[in-house]
Amino acid sequence: MPVTIQIRPTVNGAPHTDFWYPESVTIKYPSEINVSDTPDVTNANTATNFTFDTPVFLKPGLYALCTLTSSPDYTMWIAEKGSTTIKNEFVGVNPYIGTLYKSQNAMEYVPSINEDMMFKLNRCVFKSGSASSGAC
Question: Which residues of 48-64 are buried (b: 16+ CB within 10 A; e: fewer)?
């Protein structure tokens, strides 16, 4: 079964249940997914890169990065505040502003306020009226 990433707007802080930005949908099949017992955001060999086909232009606001699959066989790496990582590092604070939401059906989202998903996000900043297209 594949894994899908989508960017969705939020409604009252939770991911929108039935709207996502079509240009933000990207899919990976099992043969394209890197599996690691020791993930590390600084080591590309332990990550699976999801790349959008075109730039996704978002207005200022709150958005959700949603990971979806119909398979129970995938595991995502998360860190829980107050616990230790696989590198035996204490997690004293949530590293991101925002909330991790979990869902069994992509319709009902339950906040998990003491947990954060491991991810690395690359983005570009475009300036209007500039001769260049932007810097990534």
Answer: eebeeeeebeeeeeebb
